[in-house]
Specification:
Helix content is 46%, strand content 16%. The protein is built from 18 helices and 13 strands. It is globular. It starts with a strand and ends with a helix. This is TIGR03087 family PEP-CTERM/XrtA system glycosyltransferase.
Length: 401
């Protein structure tokens, strides 16, 4: 049995954001039975220090700095007629490093995390290739185009078209294309011409995200509505601005002491500006998001544009918090009725006010949400399909016999 080469568009450590969480747990899962060689980009100087930690999980680890400016990537995209998302990750050092690994290591499987990394596959791979698309990224740019004005409308539409064609071409070349939810997989199947499209869902570390776990507690906040996420990510920025502008005034009519906590690293200027309001807290990066979740009267996910399964929703559920989410944020989460789904400012404000007014019902809803996560979203169960794809399940059955 040969080794696995794991290519990641961002170093999967620390597992403190959605893509890193998924990447890290998949990497750990694969490393339990296989020798795994990790080659990943880093775009944060602090991440360069984590190579030593990851080396404890894998047979070898190489991290390559990616510092290309978005403007440079956009110009290269125009010159080469490629999607800017792909140009942004075009790197000679990465290409040479991958080529050397394939030449010198006994690799029989290449696990590609995020479509940007598919450009480093050999033209005709002799290895098994698993392509983890996670989401249908091209659909995100379609949505952006629908909301934008010229010239951004043209740029987003171009990106959607070029990236969509690239995604479909990659799917036809690999042994399996993986998506984070059945909804994403079904969307891609409706657009693709062929390809083995399968679902590999996200899980949640329920021992870490446990309301009883040791953590720094936050108190004295009063009624607190908490949103967590990477706060320079456009859908998150738009969500918190909309919530602060349109939903919070309605909530404050009934709960004047209520405040909205925006918790996450790298807040965009538009998010920082929200902190001038008396009813909004913008924390920036925090050492441990669990304290803010534990303090939440209600965890909110008012995303209007969302792809795949939202980790922020699973984390809040695991922390036994009552959750109110938009339909977009709830899509793909098999919650069995343990979260409240509301679209539009009036409906969302009403759902939140009802939970603030009935704390017993809110706590019961949070408790049922945690039970659902425990039953449905453990990482080992969610990643079991990987063992089938790699043939491990068949080998286990043969060994048992």
């Amino acid at each position: 049995m040969g080794d696995i080469l794991f290519l990641a568009h961002r170093i999967p450590y620390p597992p403190d954001r959605g893509d890193k969480m998924r990447g890290f747990h998949i990497l750990k899962h694969l490393s339990r039975r296989h020798r795994v060689h990790l080659i990943a980009f880093a775009d944060d100087q602090r991440d360069l220090a984590h190579q030593a930690v990851l080396s404890g999980h894998v047979a070898s680890c190489q991290v390559i700095w990616r510092g290309k400016h978005n403007i440079v990537a956009a110009l290269q995209s125009l010159a080469t007629h490629r999607a800017a998302s792909i140009s942004a990750f075009d790197n000679r050092e990465m290409a040479a490093t991958v080529a050397k690994a394939l030449k010198t290591r006994p690799i029989d499987t290449i696990y590609v995390f995020s479509s940007q990394m598919a450009q480093y596959l050999p033209a005709k791979p002799r290895q098994r290739v698993l392509m983890d698309f996670v989401d249908v990224d091209s659909a995100k740019f379609e949505a952006y185009a629908g909301q934008a004005r010229w010239p951004m409308r043209w740029m987003h539409a171009r990106e959607a078209r070029l990236l969509g064609g690239y995604e479909r071409a990659v799917a036809r070349r690999v042994d399996a294309g993986l998506f984070v939810s059945e909804a994403e997989a079904a969307l891609f199947r409706s657009r693709a011409r062929g390809g083995n499209i399968q679902v590999l869902e996200n899980g949640i570390d329920t021992d870490f995200y446990d309301p009883k776990a040791a953590m720094e507690r936050i108190s004295g906040m009063g009624p607190l509505l908490t949103f967590t996420g990477q706060m320079n990510y456009r859908p998150n920025v738009e969500a918190v601005k909309w919530f602060a502008d349109r939903v919070m005034p309605r909530i404050r009519e009934h709960h004047p002491r209520a405040r909205f906590a925006v918790v996450g690293r790298r807040p965009a200027d538009a998010v920082v500006a929200l902190a001038s309001r008396e009813d909004v807290l913008v924390t920036g990066e925090v050492a441990d998001v669990r304290g803010w979740l534990a303090a939440a009267s209600v965890a909110v996910a008012p995303l209007r544009l969302a792809r795949g399964i939202q980790n922020k929703v699973l984390e809040a559920m695991a922390m036994a918090r009552p959750v109110v989410a938009s339909a977009a944020a709830a899509e793909g989460v098999d919650d069995a009725g343990t979260i409240r789904v509301a679209d539009g400012e009036a409906a969302m404000a009403s759902a939140i006010c009802a939970l603030l007014a009935d704390r017993e019902a809110a706590e019961a809803l949070g408790a049922s949400a945690r039970e659902r996560v425990l039953a449905r979203y453990g990482w080992a169960a969610r990643l079991a399909p990987l063992d089938v794809l790699l043939g491990d399940a068949a080998r286990d059955r043969k060994s048992a016999a």
